[in-house]
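TA notes, week 10

Several of you asked for a full example with nothing omitted. So below is the full record: structure tokens for the whole chain, then the designed sequence directly under it. When grading your own attempts, check the secondary structure regions first.
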């Protein structure tokens, strides 16, 4: 029942969220449950028992294999997304961003003193990003900075804080989540193992949905009629996980758009030989590119007018 549990946790968290989207990247651990033997292990809408299901639970098949670490999509991002060089500096003032404290300590029950806080500054963005890394995280600050630095900077600028937890068997067995985005807070949060490029692309999609793709602070683009119309015109969600809701489908469309942009020959080449019927997601790719395509293009610099600001409110790390 791991799939169901993950979904319930996601919904519960969403109900408590103050602002912005809370949404989970599919949990690869679900592949070990025996629930699904298909290439895509997230049959939330087959049958369409989840009330949020879109497109009648239908989605593009054969699936775009872009969910798993070191799967085809992840490998393509690793190969074709340029790395942005970084430097980091550790905070020594005994403080942490209040949002790291709120989510990491108050909400998710890790110990404040177990977090170390870093500025990570990329050569493509003068303003640092903040990483609050729990000491039980299995990825080093350098590994984390490198993964995050693969995100095109104009996507990356939709967030400003990354909270990185310990993994399974760490000292917080009560934490049942995997990875989430709190777009209203500019936060991506999750277990260390969840910090790989395709999962960051998915999560950043939620941040873009709520900020850059919906200027003026209105509702996320995925909640607009324009997005619903694109889904209806296609009649298929971008992936099985995307079929779970318009919000998830938008983030999944972002993965497809980024592959289409960076893989030579685009999505057609990425799916080469698999007979994926890409006409089933044409309207979604087009609608996505219209509002966010410019952000899903590597290169350039962050735009300080658009970047989610460096956290202003700090608290004691104790
Ligand atoms: C982190 O970045 C902020 C904002 O640029 C800066 O004020 C602060 O001094 C930096 N701290 C460290 C330890 O580099
Ligand atoms: C591709 O999908 C479209 C929309 O569902 C359908 O009309 C078309 O027949 C499909 N093409 C193939 C080759 O299956």
């Amino acid at each position: 029942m791991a799939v169901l549990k993950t979904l319930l946790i996601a919904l519960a968290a969403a109900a408590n969220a103050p602002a912005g989207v809370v949404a989970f990247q599919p949990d690869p651990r679900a592949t070990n449950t025996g629930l699904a033997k298909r290439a895509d292990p997230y049959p939330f809408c087959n049958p369409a028992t989840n009330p949020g299901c879109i497109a009648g639970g239908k989605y593009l098949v054969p699936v775009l294999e872009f969910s798993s670490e070191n799967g085809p999509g992840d490998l393509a991002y690793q190969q074709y997304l340029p790395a942005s060089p970084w430097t980091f500096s550790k905070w020594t003032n005994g403080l942490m961003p209040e949002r790291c404290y709120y989510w990491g300590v108050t909400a998710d029950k890790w110990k404040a003193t177990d977090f170390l806080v870093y500025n990570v500054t990329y050569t493509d963005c003068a303003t640092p990003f903040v990483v609050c890394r729990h000491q039980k995280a299995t990825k080093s600050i350098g590994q984390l900075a490198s993964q995050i630095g693969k995100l095109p900077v104009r996507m990356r600028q939709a967030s400003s804080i990354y909270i990185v937890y310990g993994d399974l068997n760490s000292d917080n067995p009560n934490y049942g989540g995997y990875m989430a985005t709190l777009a209203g807070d500019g936060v991506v949060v999750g277990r260390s193992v969840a910090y790989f490029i395709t999962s960051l692309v998915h999560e950043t999609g939620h941040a873009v949905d709520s900020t850059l793709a919906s200027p003026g602070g209105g509702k996320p683009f995925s909640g607009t009629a324009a997005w619903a119309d694109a889904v209806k015109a296609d009649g298929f969600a971008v992936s099985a996980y995307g079929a779970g809701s318009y919000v998830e489908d938008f983030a999944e469309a972002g993965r497809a758009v980024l592959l289409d942009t960076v893989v030579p020959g685009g999505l057609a080449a990425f799916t080469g030989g698999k007979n994926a019927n890409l006409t089933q997601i044409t309207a979604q790719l087009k609608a996505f590119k219209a509002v966010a395509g410019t952000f899903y293009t590597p290169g350039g610099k962050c735009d300080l007018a658009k970047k989610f600001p460096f956290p202003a409110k700090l608290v004691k790390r104790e």
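Confidence is low (pLDDT under 50) at residues 1-22, 27-42. Use that as a sanity check on your answer.
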